[in-house]
Write a structure and sequence with these properties.
single chain; 3-stranded mixed sheet; alpha+beta
């Protein structure tokens, strides 16, 4: 039997979830479960709904001024999320109230 190279557990899980066809659900759950760590407490506190559909992140914000502010920094949020996941998973963000 050929000896295989050691791989990080995250790569093994990602490959496993991809084979099962649930990789997108796994990354979506990571975003939702770690939302406060990704964007901070102030934004998380004003987020009433968050979900991912076809690599588009939908965020429902309760505060109109915060919604406007976040619209200006959508690309930064997208980059922060993709860096957190260590892959380009989110392609765009829709912020609504």
């Amino acid at each position: 039997m050929k000896k295989q190279k050691a791989q990080p557990l995250s790569n093994l899980l990602s490959n496993y979830f991809r084979a099962l066809g649930i990789e997108d659900k796994f990354f979506s759950a990571r975003i939702v479960n770690n939302w406060e760590n990704i964007v901070g407490a102030a934004v998380a506190k004003n987020t009433s709904e968050i979900f991912v559909d076809k690599s588009i992140l939908y965020i429902k914000i309760q505060s109109a001024p915060l919604k406007n502010e976040l619209n200006y920094i959508k690309d930064q949020i997208k980059d922060k999320i993709n860096n957190y996941l260590d892959r380009n998973f989110i392609t765009s963000i829709v912020i609504f109230s």
